[in-house]
Each structure stands twice: as C-alpha cells, then as structure tokens.
Specification:
The protein is mainly alpha-helical and 93 residues long. The chain has a domain of 61 residues. The chain is 68% helix and 0% strand. The chain is built from three helices and no strands.
C-alpha cells in the first residue's frame, strides 16, 4: 500500500479507521427490533446478555411482536377482502 507523503499514513487509512470504528460501535450497541427466530430459548439467550431491566426488554419485545402481528393481520384482511370481491364479480358475470 502507498503512503501519503504529507501525513505519512497509508492512503485511505482514515476510511479504514472509520469503518473499524463503526463496526465496533455496532458491536457494543444493544440490538433492537423483532428477533427473527421466535423460539423462547433464543429470545431468552438474547435478552440474558443485555445490560438493563430484563422485564422492560421483554415488554418492549412483546409490544414489537404485537405491532408486527397487527400489521400482518391488517394486510391479510385487505388481501382477503380483495379476493372475496374478485370472486363475487366472477360469480355474477
């Protein structure tokens, strides 16, 4: 790799340092959102390694699951309604 004659550092070193710092930040930031694998053991494992109020984390996770379920139910209801409408139109033709 080439060095910058002015700074005596490798070209692109600032970018490499920035990337390394960002990776480190992501590693120490607690994970948020719904865990894809919904097994109780997996969720318990994820929560057990976090610092803080475990009950609050569980409550937060369950609220996220609730929001996700309600969103999916709404989408399925819309889909089913449009399918029913299409079936009715076909019958009356």
């Amino acid at each position: 790799m080439k060095k910058d004659p002015k700074t005596k550092t490798l070209y692109g070193q600032e970018l490499l340092d920035l990337i390394a710092n960002r990776i480190h930040e992501y590693g120490i930031t607690p994970q948020k959102g719904v865990i894809v694998d919904s097994s109780v053991r997996h969720i318990a494992s994820k929560i057990s390694v976090q610092d803080g109020d475990k009950e609050a984390m569980i409550k937060s996770y369950l609220e996220e699951v609730k929001r996700s379920l309600l969103l999916n139910i709404t989408q399925y209801e819309k889909s089913n309604t449009s399918m029913r409408s299409e079936n009715k139109r076909r019958r009356y033709r």
